[in-house]
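Ligand-bound model needed. nicotinamide-adenine-dinucleotide.
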Amino acid sequence: MSDRIRVQTGVATRVLLGPGARHRVPDEVERLGAKAVLLVAGMRQDAAGELADALGRRLALRFARPTVHTPVTVTDEVMGLVADRGGVDAVVALGGGSAVGLAKAVAARTGIPQVAVPTTYAGSEVTPVLGETSGGVKTTRRDPALQPGTVVYDPELTLSMPPGLTLTSALNALAHAVEGLWDAEASPGALAYATEAATTILAALPAVLDRPDDVGAREELQGAAWLAGVVLAQSRMGLHHQLAHVLGGAFDLPHAPLHAMLLAHVMEYDLPAAPRAQARLARIADGDPVAAVRALAARFDGPRALRDLGVPEDGLRAIAERVVAHPYPNPRALDVASVHALLRTAW
Ligand code: NAD
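Prediction:
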């Protein structure tokens, strides 16, 4: 039998997308037959307050402190509240990947259904993946039961994103698409999603940065981030995600800015070994895709190099060694010297 059989599993999520879609959340909760909802909201309090009011009698509990990398201590605290209240039969997450991650962690422990209302472009809401941290160690698990059954994308909820979060979070989404494009085992479906996601992000992101209040452009970008999230779920991530994972874990770095600063460097390293991705991305960018990503990343008004995030230069070699010891599938072969050189350039 061929070892080139590519697998695509179904995406069983119900997705709503459009301005004002957040007002449909109570209907979606109703559809699940839920009567006592836990609302996890890491977003600004006005959006959370509006949703809490709309849930009305169905709101059983509200938790406002989801934390990046889903610490087990925070999940334990929420599980204590859920146990005290009793009868909680659904969880609604409003916020970025941190809020969605906490809802997944609660669903993993209770089996209750999830409604995700994402407010960044991280994509976690359409993946069956959960990363949790305990004692400084992050472990990741994959289980179809972790994936929220309902996702509500409302571009109006992204209007409050500061420009830096818009930019870095969108580049985080672009990284999902780029790694899908160079995954040699990606299915035609994943490639189609990745191509559409990358095309739309490169077109819509500059428009959103120029006109942050343009809901139409925000809707395009959010739709592309959704597709990029599906790519994250459906294909194998490579060096980019591995570096983000190892660096982020070792130095406790912010998720989206780290992705934003690494992407052009990893593309420069990998694209010469990935002709299909190179050709598609050159068509999409109508020129050099590395230059296009670099130009976007340069618009970030925050830390743009590893040194600015406080990563010590003498820690880079150990990171390269860890990456090479357990490499993710990647188009270009990895050796300590090359990965170290890449990291020094990013530093
Ligand atoms: P985040 O959820 O931590 O949000 C970053 C900050 O932005 C927070 O302060 C949040 O309150 C704020 N914010 C969010 N939306 C906003 C909005 N619309 N307006 C104003 N402020 C807003 O960051 P993130 O990058 O979305 O998610 C990162 C986390 O998600 C990490 O823990 C990462 O590991 C996880 N993640 C998991 C997956 C997966 O498939 N399991 C995928 C992507 C990310």
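The mean pLDDT is 94.
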